[in-house]
């Protein structure tokens, strides 16, 4: 399967934080040929194991930002609460997919009052999230319930993954399905190597709600070294000065020096730089200090872990649709494969 096809499979899977079942089954199937075993912990993390010895951990989170149905109006419209951080300015007018109790997918639209009726001044304002409503075409609460929708049903804005043009993919949930794909490809490309350690790959739940899954998984597997894999903030767009662009598309994998959850030890940063230079992989630094990642939870668990973060730049994360460069994705995979082949050096 081509890299884009794999990305599409992961991106299109449903996985709002707390409801990661569908994406977990997709990943389990993709990982199975390249690992010794997989388990699902009580939180829903998918933890995959290969080899023996001290533990080196890769982590990528399965969950995506979304919403939960918080109320069903008598006339069938849904009110929603956010799961993870959304930019409220961007929500009205988008298509959503709701996962019903029985797993059915229900389509909907985030509605808005007609501009013909709304006074001019109101039209300039952002509609607060609590005033938004979702239209599923139901005429009453009973009809909405009959479609499988209940209080707590998860939903998210859904645009199918597609090529914008050759080499540039667009879709939902690149944060962090792209990290999941990097982990899966790194597993596949090192399957024939006899790595002198136990490789544990955690596909985490609940990152968007505060690094919840990674914390529990790190306690369970007690890594000596860990690398979190992310799709991170690409901000090379008009109106943003270069000094405020955490990462830029087309410049290769982003190595984190510090974000809001971790200051990466220079030993790890230098190790990643060295691999990139040795392999001729272009790279950039993720400018401090924006965002947080699972590495923040992992590095302080147990007796502490030497942890780092490598990310694929993605424009428009935490908005309805994201954009990435497949060349950046491929370069990130190469960097992580190089990391795994040399990670033994960090165990000393
Ligand atoms: Zn993320």
The CATH architecture of the largest domain comes to 3-Layer(aba) Sandwich
Gyration radius (Cα, Å) is 21 Å
Question: What is the count of distinct domains?
Answer: 2
Number of strands: 17
The global form is globular
Q: What proportion strand?
A: 25-35%
Number of helical regions: 9
Which cofactors or ions or other ligands sit in this model? Answer: zinc ion
Low-confidence stretches: none
The ordered H/E elements are: HHEEEEEEEHEHEEEHEHEEHEHEEH
Mean model confidence by pLDDT: 96
Fourth CATH level, the homologous superfamily of the largest domain: Zn peptidases
- CATH class assignment of the largest domain: Alpha Beta
Helix-strand makeup class = alpha+beta
Word description of this protein:
This protein has 348 residues and is an alpha+beta fold. The chain folds into 2 domains: 3-64 and 172-347, Zn peptidases (Aminopeptidase), CATH 3.40.630.10; 66-157, Elongation Factor Tu (Ef-tu), domain 3, CATH 2.40.30. The chain is built from 9 helices and 17 strands. The strands form 2 sheets. Strands 1, 2, 3, 10, 11, 12, 13, 14, 15, 16 and 17 form an 11-stranded mixed β-sheet that branches. It has a 6-stranded antiparallel β-sheet with strand order 5-4-9-6-7-8, with no helix packed on it. Helix 5 (174-189) crosses helix 9 (326-342). The protein is globular, with a radius of gyration of 21 Å. The model has no long low-confidence stretch (mean pLDDT 96). The structure holds zinc ion. Zinc ion binds next to helix 5. Residues 61, 175-176, 207, 230 line the site of zinc ion (ZN).
